[in-house]
Here is the input.
Amino acid sequence: MSQGMVYLIGAGPGDPGLITVRGREALMRADVVLYDRLGTEALMDLVRPDAQLVDVGKAPGRAAMSQDDTTALLVKLGHEGKVVARLKGGDPFVFGRGAEEAEALVAAGVRVLVVPGITSAIGAPSAAGIPVTYRAMATAFTVVTGHEDPAKDSEQNDWDLLARLPHTLIVLMGMGRLRGIAERLMAAGRPADQPAAAIQWGTTPRQREVVATLGTIADQVEQEGLGNPAILVFGDVVSRRPGLVAAGRGPLSGRTVVVTRARVQASDLRGALEALGARVIEMPVIRIQPLQATPQIAAAMAGLGQHDIVVVTSPNGVDALAAAMAAHGVDARHLSPEQTFVAIGPATADALRGMGIRADIVPERFVGEAVLEALEGTEVEGRRVLIARARHARPVIADGLRDRGAIVDDVALYETVAVRPPDDVVEAALDADIITFTSSSTVTNTLDVLDDHQRARLMRGPLVASIGPITSQTAREAGLEVGVEAGTSDIPGLIEAVIRAAATPRA
Here is the structure.
């Protein structure tokens, strides 16, 4: 039996992008993942599909598994030779009982490796624009748990001493006792007008903050309705927030953005939006599906090297072309160095490069008309052209080249298939701030999955962000108002458009 390994991984303060590289790698290798309630949900996409997931999280009044049972399970899995990820919010050794688990594993002879994480005690204030130290204002900070009742005689926190320290005081798990903590600190000498802050869901798109004073923070938190999970910050450093809040939060913080493209393609857009602070709802309404072998595909592959020009209209087209070549036993040896490859957009050119093919022509605009313009200086009369495209794509390239005398093989290699998202995802998407459309098919299929009432909500609901003029035209013809259009018809252009939309007040 192989020897097991248990990784005690700090998931970070909540933003999934703040897990360490080592933590991410360990999580992806795990056979079994034991995860906590907070700060871990968004990381489940990294887990292997065949990995076993075990919820061991704890909440006030509820525990999915007792601490003793959790520790025993870690030991048992380690003895069985499993690779185990014990995923804990924040850092494993900061109020997480990770040290107790590590000691038990070492005592049982199970290999264990601690993978540190960013604690919310530092991460949440930073994301709110609050430095925990600041020269000439706070040269140290103290982190304590507020889980203990300040009125208890036996509690370990010495609130009188903490009140006298000139440091920043950070309290985790103290929201339920905020009023008592504030009163105890004031009674011990901390001034009532000292700046204070409460930060809920720090570093995540759900982040909310209340900034007040030590004397008013409890009333202000109740008025604003902040709850757990949250941390408390007491000290003069909170006064630095107005000048730093922009540095702590991305331009899409507090905004919810819907991604409608196919799930296999959504990760780059989702990741970029989340890195800018957005809460992202994935509502894929299409799925990319290669077409089964057809006589047209077989003929195109057999004569691939005889085409003078090959036009690929999207990264999906590149993938479909590679799949068709493999299915018909065609490889790079069948290509000719004299061939001209045309790619619509840099993403398509990058995909071709992954096949070892350099795109000779990349139009400045990423639409079919731009391909015709880019080929105006190329003699096409009597020359063979292969267009690798999606089924039901616009025929503008094929028609334009035929009008100029080219012999065109217009071959559909893949199709977009409509997908119906779950009802709860649709409902959440209709309440979002911005909905993105990356193609005409994402527009039409989104409308197809909605009932009349939901279509009406979409018309007056999220601001529509379109990837380009063709998609915008489809949206407008369907009755949607396009709020913002990408300057370049690619994902970076769409992201810039979303940022512009977020910065523009709605009418």
Notes: The chain has four domains: 5-118, 122-248, 256-285+420-503, 289-417. DSSP finds 19 helices and 22 strands in the chain.
